[in-house]
């Protein structure tokens, strides 16, 4: 697998260029390459396509295409913490991971709550059933930490090089205006055709000259309908963005720090947007406390390429917090991930099916 240091100048430019804002037109690589040339990168449509294909094959990208917002597709997801004693760690993790509803699972540095996983379900009532099953199998209590307020989900990872935003120009290129002119709706449910589209693109687009036409062929729909629906989904929030989705580990962002804070309830609404505005904060939420076990109600995820960089970024979060209240060492913690225990991604099929209505 390539790492940040192995990338060529062109590969760096491509990673930085379109982590969002990829055009939704018949032959998108042509305007995308033209926009890169306008920003000083010597590349044509064929080279752009081939570079994305190679980065994807080498594992530098998780995928190329839409980043689906599972929350808006249907069902529910929640973050859960629990304790796994050292002498039973593998046994307990196996019980947790055997549940197909568990999408991600990480071991994190904490003296008690060392296992953190995401439960994704088609029906919200199923969350408590899954947690009850896990508690019965392991004899360990689970602590449900559902998202109460979202301030930011913007996991973009830039590398040093062209289009990284280090100069006067902003990072990346936004061509999201290139596409059909469609209006968003307030429709929450999916049609069968929309469900088929979501499931077809959730793992990425085909890296071809005409990716949207190829998706249309795969689901038996009109190409123009696919273009219009993807643009509409982007504007409705069902898709967070369209472009390259980097594998941040492959880019050297190995310091994954989940900072947690005991923010006074009356300042959460002020603190949230300010912390979310820090460019290195990728996820930022309000979640519930658990009395006597978990005193923190505010989560801010940071990523760094070195431990020193990560520590600097956490200090900046604390300095932002300190503008609103007197933060002490007892008011926060940082839980670095030490091991990926499971990472399958959010399974959307059951969630999308549960939110699909007949034509």
What report would you give on this structure?
It is a single chain. The chain is α+β, with helices and mostly antiparallel strands. It has a domain at 4-68 and 156-246: Orthogonal Bundle (Arc Repressor Mutant, subunit A). The chain is 34% helix and 22% strand. The strands form two sheets. The protein has a nine-stranded antiparallel sheet. Strand 3 and strand 4 form a beta hairpin. The longest helix has 16 residues, at 307-322. 38% of the residues are buried.
**Mind telling me which CATH architecture of one domain this is?**
Orthogonal Bundle
CA(first)-CA(last) distance: 45 Å
Cα-atom Rg, whole angstroms? 21 Å
Q: How does the major sheet shape up?
A: 9 strands, antiparallel
Q: Low-confidence stretches at least 5 residues in length (pLDDT < 50)?
A: none
Structural class: alpha+beta
Number of helices: 12
Average residue-wise pLDDT: 93
Shape summary: globular
Strand content: 15-25%
Question: What is the strand tally?
Answer: 11
* Helix content percent band: 25-40%
Encode the helix/strand succession as letters: HHHEHEHEEHEEHHHEEHEEHEH
- What is the class of one domain in the CATH system? Mainly Alpha
CATH topology of one domain, anyone? Arc Repressor Mutant, subunit A
Task: Name the strands of the widest sheet in spatial order.
Answer: 5-2-4-3-11-8-10-9-6
């Amino acid at each position: 697998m390539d790492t940040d240091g192995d990338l060529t100048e062109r590969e760096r430019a491509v990673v930085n260029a379109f982590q969002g804002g990829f055009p939704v037109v018949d032959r998108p690589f042509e305007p995308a390459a033209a926009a890169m040339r306008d920003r000083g990168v010597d590349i044509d449509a064929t080279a752009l396509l081939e570079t994305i294909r190679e980065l994807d094959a080498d594992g530098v990208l998780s995928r190329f295409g839409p980043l689906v917002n599972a929350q808006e597709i249907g069902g529910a997801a929640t973050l859960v913490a629990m304790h796994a004693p050292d002498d039973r760690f593998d046994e307990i993790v196996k019980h947790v991971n055997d549940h197909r509803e568990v999408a991600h699972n990480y071991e994190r540095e904490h003296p008690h709550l060392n296992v953190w996983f995401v439960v994704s379900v088609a029906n919200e009532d199923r969350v408590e059933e899954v947690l009850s099953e896990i508690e019965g199998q392991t004899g360990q209590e689970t602590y449900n930490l559902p998202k109460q307020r979202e301030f930011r989900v913007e996991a973009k990872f830039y590398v040093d090089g062209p289009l990284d935003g280090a100069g006067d120009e902003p990072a990346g290129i936004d061509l999201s205006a290139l596409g059909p002119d469609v209006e968003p709706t307030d429709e929450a449910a999916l049609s069968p055709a929309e469900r088929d589209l979501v499931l077809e693109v959730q793992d990425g687009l085909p890296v071809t000259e005409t990716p949207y036409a190829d998706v249309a062929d795969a689901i038996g729909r009109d190409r123009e309908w696919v273009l219009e629906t993807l643009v509409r989904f982007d504007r409705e929030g069902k898709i967070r963005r369209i472009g390259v989705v980097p594998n941040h580990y492959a880019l050297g962002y190995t310091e994954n720090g989940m900072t947690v804070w005991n923010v006074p309830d009356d300042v959460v609404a002020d603190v949230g947007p300010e912390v979310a505005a820090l460019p290195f904060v990728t996820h930022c939420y309000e979640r519930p406390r658990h009395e006597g076990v978990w005193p923190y109600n505010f989560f801010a995820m940071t990523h760094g390429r070195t431990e020193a960089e990560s520590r600097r970024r956490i200090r900046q979060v604390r300095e932002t917090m300190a503008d609103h209240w007197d933060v002490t060492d007892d008011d926060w913690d940082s839980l670095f991930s030490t091991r990926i225990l499971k990472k399958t991604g959010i399974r959307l099929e059951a969630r999308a099916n549960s939110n699909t209505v007949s034509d």
